[in-house]
Amino acid sequence: MDQVSAGIPDTSKYLVSSVRARDGWVIERATSDDIDELMAWFPDAKAIKVWGGPHFRYPISRDAFHADCHWRDMATFCVRDPQNRFSAFGQLYAKHERINLARLVVHPDLRGGGVGKRLVAMLMQVGPALMSLDEYSLFVYRDNTPALKCYESMGFVIRDYPYDDPLVDACFYLTRPVDEGR
């Protein structure tokens, strides 16, 4: 039985070999075990909603979390430090002709140390290999100042969201050209 007839989405278009930076950090495709570990990074309903959006269920159950983060339907990555510790998580998908960076999160013990920039940079490194689009985009809640500063420092600019979306009032929409800084 093939993947499609078994009800498993074909994510082969999202498969990218792991990429190792010169300093030993790695971005690689997330596994089910990574998703299980990721669940522990969110201590309460607010944390899960800020990260995953209003449709994430809480309290967290393994099956609901796996389903809500759509990790088998999107290009889903984890970033590991040189000691192979799971340090950050993010997803990529095409949205409105842009490579959208989604569900970005750094391990709680590593926040504020530059891992968020590393995550975004590594996702932007693999994104064009998966999707031939000219811009990146992402959303950030308006009160998430540390994340907003991180994205702006990497060349993302706040834009008007060109479509009707219920999160527009709660979030900033940011974009950046793919080839900026190459």
Notable traits:
eight-stranded mixed beta sheet, disordered N terminus, Aminopeptidase, alpha+beta, 182 residues
Mean pLDDT: 88
The CATH architecture assignment of the domain at 12-134 turns out to be 3-Layer(aba) Sandwich
Radius of gyration, CA atoms, in whole angstroms: 16 Å
Q: Give the overall shape.
A: globular
One letter per element, helices H and strands E, the order comes to EEHHHEEEHEHEE
Please tally the β strands and state the result.
8
Number of helices: 5
Structural class designation: alpha+beta
CATH T-level fold name of the domain at 12-134: Aminopeptidase
Strand content: 25-35%
Low-confidence stretches: 1-12
The first-to-last residue Cα distance is: 43 Å
User: Going across the major beta sheet, what is the strand order?
Assistant: 1-2-3-4-5-6-8-7
Biggest pleated sheet: 8 strands, mixed
Reading off the top of the CATH hierarchy, the class of the domain at 12-134 is best stated as Alpha Beta
Helix content: 25-40%
Question: Could you characterize the architecture of this molecule?
Answer:
This protein is an alpha+beta fold and 182 residues long. The chain has helices at residues 32-39, 45-52, 62-68, 115-130, 145-153, and strands spanning 19-20, 26-29, 75-80, 86-95, 98-106, 135-141, 157-159, 171-177. The protein has a domain at 12-134: 3-Layer(aba) Sandwich (Aminopeptidase), CATH 3.40.630. Strands 1-2-3-4-5-6-8-7 form an eight-stranded mixed beta sheet. A hairpin with a 2-residue loop joins strand 4 and strand 5 (98-106). The protein is globular.
